[in-house]
Write a structure and sequence with these properties.
Blueprint lengths: L7 H16 L6 H5 L19 H12 L3 H14 L5 H11 L16 H19 L6 E3 L2 E3 L6 E6 L4 E8 L2 E9 L2 E2 L16 E4 L17 E3 L5 H5 L8 E3 L11 E3 L3 E2 L2 H8 L8 E5 L4 E3 H23 L3 H5 L7 E2 L2 E2 H12 L5 E12 L6 E12 L3 E13 L2 E9 L1
Parallel strand pairs: 3-12, 6-10, 9-11
Antiparallel strand pairs: 1-13, 2-16, 3-4, 4-5, 7-12, 8-9, 14-15, 16-17, 17-18, 18-19
Length: 415
Amino acid sequence: MSRDFRHPAATEDRIGIVRRRLLAVAAASACLLACGPAVAVAPAHLDQAAAGPEPLLSRIFEQIEQNHLDVALEQADALIKAYPKFRLTYLIKGDLLLARAGPISTFGNVANVPAGKLAELRDEAIVRLKGYLDKPRANTVPRYLLQMPSDQKYAIVVDTKRSRLYLYQNDKGTPRFVADYYITQGKLGADKRREGDKRTPIGVYHVTGSLSPKTLSDIYGSGAFPLSYPNEWDKRHGRSGHGIWLHGTPSDTYSRPPRDSDGCVVLANQDLDTISKDLQVGLTPVIISDSIEWLSLDDWHAERAAFEKDFAQWRTDWESLDVNRYLSHYAKNFSADGEDLAQWSAKKRLIDRGKTWIKVTTKNLSMFRNPGKEPMVVVTFDQIYRSNNLSNVMKKRQYWLKENGHWKIAYEGPA
């Protein structure tokens, strides 16, 4: 069973406290907001900034929440020195400075600055604050990471609703939380359907390449990692488009607003550089969701074991030479290589007439639950097939759907 261990009401109450304090402290100066220092300062002198601005930004929020505004101002100055291109800090600092002159009516009420720019910074402030207050609990994992093979060292899960990217390490088969980062998604949100719709796709993808900044324009920052959109399921459903990447920000920008890409997932350059060492081309899964479902470890183990049982039964029934049992694992709407279930079944029956024995072994099995609306698991594995008249090895991918309460294969083909 999927469970949400967060407490939305309590989180919103805490956000309300910080927002009200920010509302009570005033608007940033136009010069600070619009310009900011142009020369970067190395962040080495600030331990809290070693992993990006989030840790110290969180401390600033904590001090505002506790009404320690002078301490918050000192920490805002430290963050500005460490990250002069992080313009959200200037908005907060301006509010803190003007609080000394008296209360104000709105957060970031700045004259002579485009309203759109202020709205973007306000959105970023709230998204970052929610990410800080709404961390995943230690005893939960994303529902999607059912099984990673040993050669997949890390997995990425993106939550577009919260503008967060979560990095998980494969700890002997169990996902272990490593870190999370603020991200930017498509201008029109998630659930990409067609070329140019400025949306970020939802689904299970993999890193397919690594592009050096030397080969890219400055808009992509310190590099880019193309993703496998559209995948087999996207193509089956007519979803079009290309060029969905993980990439960085322009050299004069620390971070972009929550919705500011043409569909890519965008990180601050420092964050991209941090996770890039953990990305394996052709292996690392990137699962993009519009709202992550979290499971307790007990529920995660139970869900994984239940699906593994069905997958193992498919393999056993294939080896049994009972074609009806084997075909019972395929969905009514199955399709592959241009064949529907009836055509696929006829071909399999013809092939099996010449078999006296079959042995199927699977290795490097990965199982990722798709974050879409319908229950689906994407399975990838190395298949070693042997029979009395044929032997081959291939990398296979299957999409399993729930049909009348049972897992069935809706797509099967080479990966």
